[in-house]
């Protein structure tokens, strides 16, 4: 007992690990393949994007990050980006324009994950010198810079060194095998351990270009737990330091009362809405859709189910620049609803709508029950279809499989109004969970295309707003709320800043502990 | 004995092959398009077709099956649509955790169930017997996931005696992947204590129902032994009670308990899925459940076959133990 | 010349509590055995022979059994009033019993040798952990020697090998002989033989009975032999008791009972026997 | 003549009386019988008993949601303000139905196959038992999970999924019993008379397997309910708003520990019901005096 | 002279033991080996032998539960191996009936006595319901049981009564050949003599042929006309009952006779006369 046990020291060190609880497993850490929130969280901590939302000014608009500055030519087609000096990859290699070009080429070649953002618009990418990279687009594309928040720069040398046989010609497998298991970025954290079925472990990258200060997190474990009660217990017992944003509202309300726990609420750029399938009876009739939208008890939904969330005003979250001021929140009006229904082609018939929602999510179950009760009042029967997320994605493939009404919670894919307009209502966007209204209108299409290539920002925003006005007039969805964004952590955690862009809220570099 | 074992081992194969065919067919019967799911919502038709071809899903079913079986023996268990990795690796990552949990659960079940059963038999119909029986029945009747939540709530949340989730951070040298065993092998007391603290609640939650079943069975068997002529005979020879109970009766009673241990192990592994979910245990459960949700063919088949194999092997071990205890089988006169 | 009374059952009455109520099974039974004597107990199935014998060994669970009267004196001491401890000391070393069915009276999972050894070592002990009177090794040797001796006397072939065999490896006749040897390993004074070998072949049964009688006489052991076969009863016992419905209806020298039965019931039983001439 | 008839009926009577006596010997059996009777009655008469009959409908009352037990709501209210007591009572119906359907399917498929395999032996036996082995080669919960996932979750489908792995147990049990019985001399006698295989299987063997089968059914009821609840827990069982107990627990568990009533009460309902059936099963076992497996 | 009821010609029945799936190594049990005899009509033909000597196997072959390995069996002049098909088999089984050793296990515990006796009638589609009931009543009276027992279950009957039910069922179809496989070995002496008396009475009444399997020589003395002795599947001695008792030739037969426990001095003297030359009689057992 006299000699100190070396093992004890190790266990003491275990306490320094910051534990974050995620709601979903990380499927991949390859920046060319990442899709969902937890994967983006992994990326944002392991890699650095070219641009970053302007967090310091509490804005989502992108500012240069790995990029130092950029220029757009007059045709609005050529973007020349200068790379910041002195960024080192975790391997020790210097980050150059070559790496940026490689990252984009690799993205397009693999054609997974976020590739869709660029595959149709990018003509070519070229590193003109060590510091400069040039993107050439085939059309003007207003949100281009915003999309570059999703381009996480990869260490091209490291990947080439570890390239295996593959389908990409002289690029072999584009380092896919290697990068699937290892991080190859310049981000603040290195991957030290990844148990695919439960956790990732990060360790601070000492030479990170933004430097380190006292109190910042040195070791982080991101653990996936799906049981909501377990997640709460973990936070309250102090075993976890921070937990994800997807618990039920009542859970955060409950956590608010616990000592040592901070629950942070922020108005979000998320959109809680219910796309109505415009190509399936009876919601193919505008008046039916209107009747449904007018029959919903928004007050109860916003107050009791969503816990005092802001009402949605149309297709774009209110806080996103470019959201139309002309579109107002809808409120319940049963008389108007009945009148609309009477005008519809289905008047006098028994009307039944299918309603698809996530059965294991308390909030969505509550919506289902509320809608069923509300719509019964105007004589519409709701057929409830509780499903899991995989089934929603599957149903979204065609208008036939898409339900009449589906519960969707959508966040910005890139910090631009384009994400919620073009990304959802342009005819080319089809078959994803975002497009379950099956909205298709040549006039709107044209406005959206024009908006992307508009000369001035003002003109552009006007076009985006116009598109929103046209879209909402068709009642393609029940726009419910821009729900409050919750997150909870122990009161020893400091520096949390809400960003509003998927995954960016959980950048461990910004946090520190007392 | 050798012949008996060989026969047992050969007996397992048809069932496992049958199981593989059954599950293979079931997965192909799944409605919906798992390839589309895997390719992601933004995938183009071409991407989807490419993936389908990559997975060999456009070949005839029979050929797919043969291909799969070939791969099974070369370590190529197919590509998981969800994790994009060889299923073999995925299962390899999670297997040890589930196995350790189930194994310890089984050990708990036997260690708790058998002595209580003996006690209940000895105190036949007295108060303690009734009490043991009532508790054991309740143990069977309470849903395991619910028990898991309750245990977690009481011992981890309210009392804070045990960690809420996980296997712990102290990883002993990886020899078998079973941490308790590994830490014993490397004489790492610290890691053993830590692993044990983590595994105790989940293993307990898992074992209760099985312990109860084993207890009931042991009790019944012991009661049955009591009326056996050779036990009466043993009394008539003036043998001490503890000899009669602990050897003459228990050994015989345990033989039939043994046969159900294989069965219990099966239900333990099944329930491990529930318990793992609650205790965030990094085992096969979340992988399999996600696999089911995402219609991840290869993952489902892989997991099922692995569980089938564990089950078969555990039954085989039970048979071996049975053979060791039962001389009739050991001496090959069965 | 009157020999010493070894066992004396006086007015023994036993009832069983069952679902249908309390049933009187043994009613005022009187039986005695003298030192070195062999007596037989006959009677049809269910007449209470086994219950009487098991009472002597105190092998009947109470409840369901209730001793409603009488006493069982073994060398003057009442067995029914003895403590567990005292009974355990008697069992096997003073009074031993041979069971009816050789198929079920041996523990299937231990070798014959182990079972014999256990009896030799632990008979009468409070527990297996108690200190043995002599070194364990020596006692095991003695047990083995004694077992082999008994096996030889019971004309069992290959006695040494037999010790390492399991019950299922033996024929019914061999098992029955082993059971007899087990009962005798501690050389009791009184042997209770409950229809040994009735489930075996006639010829085998006949030879076992002959061997048993010889062995018991050689070792100067008294015996109560139970059977429902009147012929066997006559051949084995010096005296015979006839039981019916839990009562002794006739007793006397075997010659007298069988050739000059005094009681109607005995006569009826004898008449039912098929004659061979 | 009259006298004879009387005597006979008395004999019959006394044998039945013996059975009844064995059945009631254990006080637990009586407790079990009472529980089962109450649960069955609740299931049948739910509409007339529950304090809030609309708990089973689409009615919502968000103002009352997640309220603790009170004089108004003995078991509190759930996430949309429905009365938990009422839903728990309705739940008895679904859980019992689940057990009834699954076991009916299992018996209807499993028992005849077991008779066939056990009686005919040889090739028929090999084929049937090998197929049975395949289904038994994997824990029934996992098989049920797989099938439930394939079929899209719903109450009906979870019943099918559970049955999928349940019948083999009945086949195995019946086959084993049949093997035991088929060598009894009364079967050989019937064969000697010239009775057909079908007659022997269903008229001679089946009645002798029945006690064992009934005992198995009585103990299985609880296990089916548990399995159903487990499926519900993993989201593959009955779907909301069906007030099936497992689904109720599964839905409400996210509110633990502070809002405990909406999961604890259905949990207790499962516990009590299964205890009831287990006690009853033990009683039936004693009555038939069939040794437990 | 009338045709014999049964004829065995070099009958063989071998069983294969320990069939393992791989090697061809197999052990044969010659349960019945080259046995020939004839059974005349209307008589009691006794088969004696120790356990495992092949007695039951012969009965099973007679019932067509087992096929022959070799040789020929004729029943009522008909080569029974030629009987093929369900209907022919059913017709054959009307002719031959069996009474088993263990009265308890030979009655279905879940059926009433009435159902048990009625079963053969139903199977062979004999009579209407009421006719059948009438016949069942007759039968139960033939075996001296009260009518009231018809509604009882087997467990409510004593061993001897159960055996009577077995006999009633065996004669229900008016079969002329009854196989008695140790019908009284499970019964007490006094009960045994009553059942044997009943069997004698019925035999006379219905002119039955009995194929009587036993290991009790004393019983044979009073009951059988002709005896064969089996040892390890082979027929070792045969003859008229009287002849066999007075002049046994085979060692095993002598041993059997010596093993009969007797009461009377006269009987004892009778047995004592039997000389066993070979004294190395070794242990046997099942
Ligand atoms: N545990 C018991 N409970 C109830 N009754 C019992 C019990 N043991 C024995 N009996 C009854 O006691 C009576 C005598 O039984 P016992 O075994 O002594 O007969 P037996 O003369 O040995 O008959 P057998 O020749 O068949 O062995 C029987 O009627 C039996 O049913
Ligand atoms: N189905 C079978 N398979 C293998 N061996 C068998 C079979 N049936 C009988 N035998 C063997 O055939 C021999 C004769 O058996 P059988 O039953 O005819 O004897 P038994 O004379 O009727 O004996 P017991 O007096 O015990 O009834 C025995 O060695 C037995 O083990
Ligand atoms: Mg007895
Ligand atoms: Mg026989």
UniProtKB/TrEMBL annotation, chain B:
Presence of keyword Secreted:
no
User: Which taxonomic lineage is given here?
Assistant: Bacteria, Bacillati, Bacillota, Clostridia, Eubacteriales
Which keywords does UniProt give here? Answer: Cell membrane, Membrane, Transmembrane, Transmembrane helix, Transport
What subcellular locations does the record give?
Cell membrane
Give the organism, scientific name: Proteiniclasticum aestuarii
Query: What processes does the entry annotate via GO biological process terms?
Result: transmembrane transport
Q: What is this protein called?
A: ABC transporter permease
Asked if the keyword Chloroplast belongs to this entry, the reply reads no
Domain ABC transmembrane type-1: where?
95-322
Gene Ontology, cellular component aspect: plasma membrane
Similarity field? Belongs to the binding-protein-dependent transport system permease family.
Q: Which residues cross the membrane?
A: 9-27, 103-122, 142-162, 199-218, 253-279, 299-325
Membrane topology per record: Multi-pass membrane protein
The UniProt entry, under InterPro entries, shows: BPD_transp_1_N, MetI-like, MetI-like_sf
UniProtKB/TrEMBL annotation, chain C:
List the GO molecular function terms: ATP binding; ATP hydrolysis activity
Tell me yes or no: is Membrane among this UniProt entry's keywords: yes
Q: Name one Pfam family in it.
A: ABC_tran
CDD domains assigned to the protein according to its UniProt record, in alphabetical order = ABC_NikE_OppD_transporters
Give a Gene Ontology cellular component term annotated to this protein: plasma membrane
Which compartments does it reside in? Cell membrane
Please classify the protein's predominant subcellular localization into one broad category. membrane
Does the keyword field hold Transmembrane helix?
A: no
Task: Please give the SUPFAM superfamilies that the UniProt record associates with this protein.
Answer: P-loop containing nucleoside triphosphate hydrolases (SSF52540)
UniProt entry keywords in alphabetical sequence: ATP-binding, Cell membrane, Membrane, Nucleotide-binding, Transport
Question: How the protein sits in the membrane?
Answer: Peripheral membrane protein
Q: Which residues form the ABC transporter domain?
A: 7-270
Q: Which SMART domains match?
A: AAA
Q: Which PANTHER family match?
A: DIPEPTIDE TRANSPORT ATP-BINDING PROTEIN DPPD (PTHR43297:SF2), OLIGOPEPTIDE TRANSPORT ATP-BINDING PROTEIN APPD (PTHR43297)
Q: Which family does it belong to?
A: Belongs to the ABC transporter superfamily.
Protein name listed in UniProt: ABC transporter ATP-binding protein
Q: Which species is listed as the source?
A: Proteiniclasticum aestuarii
UniProtKB/TrEMBL annotation, chain D:
Cite the entry's keywords alphabetically.
Cell membrane, Membrane, Transmembrane, Transmembrane helix, Transport
Pfam families tied to this protein: BPD_transp_1 (PF00528), OppC_N (PF12911)
Q: Which family does it belong to?
A: Belongs to the binding-protein-dependent transport system permease family.
Its GO biological process terms?
Answer: transmembrane transport
Q: Transmembrane residues, as ranges? A: 28-50, 94-119, 131-150, 221-239, 259-281
Indicate how the chain sits in the lipid bilayer.
Multi-pass membrane protein
Which coarse location class describes where this protein primarily resides? membrane
**Does the record bear Membrane in its keywords?**
yes
Q: Name the InterPro entries on file.
A: BP-dependent_transpt_permease, MetI-like, MetI-like_sf, OppC_N
Q: Name one GO cellular component term.
A: plasma membrane
Where does the source fall among the domains of life? Bacteria
> What protein name is recorded for this chain?
ABC transporter permease
Where is this gene product found?
A: Cell membrane
- The ABC transmembrane type-1 domain extends over 92-281
UniProtKB/TrEMBL annotation, chain E:
Stored CDD domains: ABC_NikE_OppD_transporters (cd03257)
Pfam family name, one: oligo_HPY
Among the record's GO biological process terms, what is one?
transmembrane transport
- Output the superkingdom of the source species: Bacteria
PROSITE patterns membership = ABC_TRANSPORTER_1, ABC_TRANSPORTER_2
SMART domains this protein is in? Answer: AAA (SM00382)
Q: Name one GO molecular function term.
A: ATP hydrolysis activity
ATP-binding found in the keyword field: yes
Domain annotation ABC transporter: ranges = 6-257
Query: Which keywords label this protein?
Result: ATP-binding, Nucleotide-binding, Transport
Q: Mind telling me which InterPro entries this protein's record contains?
A: AAA+_ATPase (IPR003593), ABC_transp_ATP-bind (IPR050319), ABC_transporter-like_ATP-bd (IPR003439), ABC_transporter-like_CS (IPR017871), Oligopep_ABC_C (IPR013563), P-loop_NTPase (IPR027417)
> What is the name of this protein?
ABC transporter ATP-binding protein
């Amino acid at each position: 007992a006299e000699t100190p046990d070396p093992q004890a020291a190790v266990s003491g060190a275990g306490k320094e690990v910051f534990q974050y609880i995620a709601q979903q497993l990380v499927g991949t850490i390859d920046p060319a393949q990442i899709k969902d929130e937890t994967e983006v969280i992994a990326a944002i901590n392991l890699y650095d994007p070219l641009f970053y939302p302007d967090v310091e000014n509490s804005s989502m608009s992108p500012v240069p990050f790995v990029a130092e500055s950029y220029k757009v030519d007059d045709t609005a087609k050529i973007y020349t980006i200068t790379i910041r000096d002195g960024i080192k990859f975790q391997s020790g290699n210097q980050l150059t324009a070559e790496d940026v070009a490689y990252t984009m080429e690799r993205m397009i070649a693999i054609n997974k994950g976020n590739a869709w953002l660029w595959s149709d618009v990018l003509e070519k990418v070229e590193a003109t010198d060590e510091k400069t990279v040039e993107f050439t687009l085939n059309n003007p594309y207003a949100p281009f810079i915003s999309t570059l928040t999703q381009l996480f720069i990869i260490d091209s040398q490291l990947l080439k060194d570890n390239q295996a046989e593959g389908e990409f010609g002289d690029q072999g497998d584009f380092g896919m095998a290697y990068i699937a298991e290892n991080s190859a970025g310049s981000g603040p954290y290195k991957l030290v351990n990844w148990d695919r079925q439960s956790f990732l472990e990060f360790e601070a990258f000492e030479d990170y270009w933004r430097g380190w200060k006292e109190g910042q997190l040195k070791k982080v474990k991101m653990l996936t737990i799906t049981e909501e009660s377990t997640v709460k217990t973990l936070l309250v017992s102090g075993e976890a330091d921070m937990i994800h944003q997807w618990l039920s509202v009542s859970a955060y309300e409950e956590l608010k009362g616990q000592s040592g726990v901070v629950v942070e609420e922020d108005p979000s750029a998320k959109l809680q809405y219910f796309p109505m399938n415009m190509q399936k009876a009876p919601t193919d009739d505008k008046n039916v859709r209107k009747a449904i939208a007018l029959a919903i008890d928004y007050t109860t939904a916003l107050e009791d189910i969503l816990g005092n969330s802001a009402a949605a005003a149309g297709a774009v979250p209110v806080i996103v620049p470019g959201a139309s001021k002309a579109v107002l929140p809808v409120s319940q009006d049963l008389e108007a609803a009945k009148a609309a229904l009477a005008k519809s082609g289905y008047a006098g018939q028994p009307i039944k709508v299918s309603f698809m929602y996530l059965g294991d999510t308390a909030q969505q179950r509550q919506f289902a029950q509320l809608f069923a009760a509300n719509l019964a009042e105007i004589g519409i029967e709701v057929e409830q279809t509780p499903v899991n997320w995989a089934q929603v994605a599957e149903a979204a493939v065609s208008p036939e499989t898409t339900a009449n009404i589906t519960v969707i919670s959508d966040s910005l894919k890139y910090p631009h109004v384009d994400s919620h307009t073009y990304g959802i209502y342009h005819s080319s966007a089809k078959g994803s969970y975002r497009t379950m209204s099956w909205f298709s209108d040549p006039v709107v299409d044209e406005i959206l295309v024009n908006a992307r290539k508009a000369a001035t920002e003002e003109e552009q925003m006007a076009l985006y707003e116009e598109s929103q006005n046209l879209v909402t007039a068709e009642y393609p969805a029940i726009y419910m709320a821009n729900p409050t964004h919750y997150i909870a952590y122990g009161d020893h955690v400091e520096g949390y800043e809400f960003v509003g862009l998927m995954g960016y809220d959980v950048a461990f570099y910004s946090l520190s502990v007392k | 004995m050798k012949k008996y074992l060989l026969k047992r081992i050969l007996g397992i194969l048809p069932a496992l092959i049958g199981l593989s065919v059954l599950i293979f067919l079931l997965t192909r019967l799944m409605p919906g398009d798992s390839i589309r799911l895997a390719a992601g919502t933004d995938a183009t038709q071409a991407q989807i077709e490419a993936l389908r071809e990559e997975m060999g899903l456009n070949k005839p079913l029979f050929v797919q099956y043969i291909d799969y079986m070939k791969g099974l023996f070369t370590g190529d268990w197919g590509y998981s649509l969800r994790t994009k990795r060889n299923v073999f690796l995925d299962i390899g990552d999670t297997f040890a955790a589930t196995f350790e949990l189930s194994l310890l659960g089984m050990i708990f079940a036997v260690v708790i169930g058998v002595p209580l059963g003996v006690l209940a038999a000895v105190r036949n119909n007295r108060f303690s017997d009734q009490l043991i029986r009532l508790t054991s029945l309740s143990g069977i009747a309470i849903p395991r996931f619910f028990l898991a939540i309750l245990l977690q709530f009481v011992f981890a949340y309210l009392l804070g005696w045990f960690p809420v989730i996980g296997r712990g951070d102290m990883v002993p040298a990886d020899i078998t992947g079973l941490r308790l065993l590994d830490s014993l092998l490397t004489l790492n007391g610290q890691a053993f204590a830590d692993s044990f603290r983590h595994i105790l609640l989940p293993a307990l939650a898992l074992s209760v129902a099985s312990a109860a079943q084993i207890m009931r069975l042991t009790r019944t068997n012991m009661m049955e032994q009591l009326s056996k002529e050779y036990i009466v005979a043993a009394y008539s020879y003036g043998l001490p009670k503890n000899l009669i109970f602990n050897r003459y009766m228990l050994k015989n009673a345990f033989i039939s308990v043994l046969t159900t241990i294989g069965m219990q192990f099966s239900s333990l592994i099944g329930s491990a899925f529930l318990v793992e979910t609650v205790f965030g245990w990094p085992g096969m459960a979340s992988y399999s459940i996600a696999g089911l949700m995402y219609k991840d063919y290869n993952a489902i088949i892989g997991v099922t076959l692995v569980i089938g194999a564990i089950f078969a092997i555990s039954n085989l071990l039970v048979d071996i133990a049975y053979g060791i205890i039962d001389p009739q089988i050991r001496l090959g006169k069965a | 010349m009157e020999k010493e009374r070894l066992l004396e059952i006086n007015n023994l009455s036993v009832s069983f509590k069952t679902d249908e109520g309390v049933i009187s099974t043994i009613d005022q039974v009187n039986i005695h055995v003298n030192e070195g004597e062999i007596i037989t107990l006959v009677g049809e199935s269910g007449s209470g022979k086994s219950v009487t014998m098991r009472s002597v060994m105190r092998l009947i669970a109470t409840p369901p059994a209730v001793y409603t009267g009488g006493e069982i004196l073994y060398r003057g001491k009442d067995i029914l009033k003895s403590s567990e401890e005292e009974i355990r000391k008697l069992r096997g070393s003073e009074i031993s019993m041979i069971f009816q069915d050789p198929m079920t009276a041996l523990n299937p999972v231990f070798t014959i040798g182990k079972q014999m050894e256990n009896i030799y070592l632990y008979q009468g002990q409070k527990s297996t952990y108690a200190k043995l009177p002599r070194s364990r090794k020596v006692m095991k040797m003695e047990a083995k020697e004694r077992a082999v001796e008994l096996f030889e006397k019971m004309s069992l072939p290959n006695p040494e090998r037999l010790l390492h065999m399991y019950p299922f490896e033996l024929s019914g006749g061999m098992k029955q002989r082993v059971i007899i040897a087990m009962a005798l390993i501690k050389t009791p004074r009184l042997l209770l033989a409950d229809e040994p070998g009735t489930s075996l072949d006639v010829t085998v049964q006949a030879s076992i009975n002959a061997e048993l009688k010889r062995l018991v006489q050689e070792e100067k052991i008294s015996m109560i032999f139970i059977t429902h076969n009147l012929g066997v009863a006559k051949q084995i016992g010096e005296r015979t008791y006839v039981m019916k419905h839990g009562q002794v209806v006739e007793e006397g020298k075997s010659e007298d009972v069988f050739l000059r039965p005094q009681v109607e019931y005995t006569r009826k039983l004898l008449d039912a026997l098929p004659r061979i001439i | 003549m009259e006298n004879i008839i009387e005597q006979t009926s008395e004999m019959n009577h006394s044998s039945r009386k013996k059975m009844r006596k064995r059945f009631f010997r254990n006080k637990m059996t009586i407790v079990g019988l009472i529980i089962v009777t109450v649960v069955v009655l609740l299931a049948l008469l739910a509409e007339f008993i529950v304090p809030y009959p609309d708990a089973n409908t689409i009615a919502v009352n968000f103002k009352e949601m997640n309220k603790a037990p009170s004089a108004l709501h003995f078991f509190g209210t759930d996430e949309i303000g429905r009365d938990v007591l009422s839903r728990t009572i309705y739940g008895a119906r679904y859980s019992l139905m689940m057990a009834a359907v699954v076991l009916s399917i299992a018996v209807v498929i499993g028992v005849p196959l077991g008779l066939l395999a056990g009686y005919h032996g040889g090739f028929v036996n090999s084929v049937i038992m090998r197929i049975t082995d395949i289904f038994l080669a994997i824990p029934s919960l996992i098989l049920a999970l797989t099938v439930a996932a394939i079929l899209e979750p719903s109450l009906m489908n979870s019943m099918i999924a559970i049955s999928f792995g349940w019948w083999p147990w009945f086949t195995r049990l019946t086959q084993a019993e049949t093997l035991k019985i088929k060598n009894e001399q009364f079967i050989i006698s019937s064969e000697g008379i010239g009775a057909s295989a079908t007659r022997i299987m269903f008229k001679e063997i089946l009645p002798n397997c029945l006690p064992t089968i009934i005992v198995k059914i009585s103990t299985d009821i609880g296990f089916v309910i548990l399995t159903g609840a487990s499926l519900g827990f993993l989201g593959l069982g009955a779907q909301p708003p069906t007030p099936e107990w497992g689904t109720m627990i599964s839905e409400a568990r996210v509110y633990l520990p502070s809002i405990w009533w909406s999961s604890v009460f259905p949990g207790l309902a499962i516990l009590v019901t299964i205890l009831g059936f287990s006690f009853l099963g033990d009683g039936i076992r004693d009555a038939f005096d069939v040794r437990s497996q | 002279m009338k045709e014999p009821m049964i004829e065995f010609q070099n009958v063989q029945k071998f069983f294969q033991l320990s069939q393992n799936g791989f090697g061809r190594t197999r052990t044969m049990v010659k349960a019945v080996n080259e046995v020939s005899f004839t059974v005349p009509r209307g008589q009691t033909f006794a088969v004696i032998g120790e356990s495992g000597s092949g007695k039951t196997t012969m009965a099973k072959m007679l019932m067509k539960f087992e096929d022959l390995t070799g040789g020929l069996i004729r029943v009522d002049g008909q080569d029974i191996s030629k009987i093929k098909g369900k209907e022919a088999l059913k017709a054959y089984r009307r002719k031959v009936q069996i009474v088993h050793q263990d009265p308890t296990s030979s009655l279905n515990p879940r059926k009433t006595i009435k159902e048990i006796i009625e079963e053969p009638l139903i199977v062979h589609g004999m009579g209407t319901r009421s006719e059948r009931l009438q016949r069942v009543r007759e039968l139960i009276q033939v075996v001296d049981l009260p009518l009231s027992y018809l509604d009882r279950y087997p467990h409510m009957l004593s061993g001897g009564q159960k055996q009577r039910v077995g006999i009633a069922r065996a004669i229900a179809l008016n079969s002329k050949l009854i196989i008695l496989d140790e019908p009284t070995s499970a019964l007490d002496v006094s009960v045994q003599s009553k059942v044997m008396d009943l069997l004698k009475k019925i035999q006379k009444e219905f002119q039955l042929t009995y194929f009587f399997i036993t290991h009790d020589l004393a019983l044979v003395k009073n009951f059988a006309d002709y005896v064969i002795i089996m040892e390890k599947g082979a027929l070792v001695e045969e003859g008229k009952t009287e002849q066999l008792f007075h002049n046994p030739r085979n060692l095993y037969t002598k041993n059997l006779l010596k093993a009969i426990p007797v009461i009377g001095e006269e009987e004892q003297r009778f047995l004592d006369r039997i000389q066993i030359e070979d004294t190395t009689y070794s242990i046997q057992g099942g």
